[in-house]
Amino acid sequence: MSDTTQILRAFDEAPPTRVRDYVDLLKPRVMSLVVFTGLVGVMIAPGHLHPFTAALAVLAIALGSGAAGCINMWYERDLDALMARTANRPLPAGRVAPDDALGLGVLLSIFSVLLMAVSTNFVAAGLLTAAILFYVFIYTVWLKRRTPQNIVIGGAAGAFPPMIGWAAVTGDVSLISIALFGLIFLWTPPHFWALALYRSDDYRRAGVPMLPVVAGPRETKRQMLIYTFVLLPVALVPTLMGAVGWLYGAVALVLSLSFIGHAVTVWRAADDATGHGPARRMFRFSLIYLAALFAALPVDQLVSRMLAG
User: Fold this and answer.
1) Where does CATH 1.20.120.1780 sit in the chain?
2) Average pLDDT estimate for 110-121
3) Domain spanning 13-172: which CATH class is it, in words?
């Protein structure tokens, strides 16, 4: 193969890889859950948004989430380089310059807030601003490297989207939207601690004081179990407050009991075997748990309207 051919092939392959690297900076997996919970907030809020306006609101939530993730990756690139799970991210791998990542994150942060303010209202824009700032400054800069409660407090950042979606429609914050915030807030610690249990060597090597590293597996599993028990009544609040019916309530009850069952299995597993099965399964189930709960909310409302109509 000639040198010219090699250069042309490299040129052809470079742009998709570069675009993919910049997309990866936005943490698309995290963004997908954020977008979904924000969309549900829009769908179940009383009132109506034009579909185009609703799409702009959800886009603003997505861009705000991606912006916060991008700045997080910029700030934590030294930690990411030390952990097997994150070492191949664009910044520690050297595929994106740090200044480019920071610039992208800041620009998307400003644009997402302005888009939300122009397309919906200042309450939703203010909540989106709070979510971005909380994730960047409270969780990433202040808590992540200093306390094993980083996930507990920092989890608030990921709990904002349904409240933002609700505010985009109504222009205010209600008890129902606060309940959805609380649901994600209480779900976050057992979700991330399950991951931390089987990735504890990574966090230990990077010097991140995650609970399994600081307090050990037994205390981590005990707190995970407590959180799943507390989560059960909170998951039922939308039904108990009359925002949705018992279709959602039944789904929430079954899923929450299953989540508790996973936590019990993790609790009973030997500490040295936790990361090889139970904790990994609990982590995966936790993703299904939250997605299914939020999917059940608009489905319940739709079924109720069909039965009433």
Assistant:
1) 174-309
2) 98
3) mainly alpha
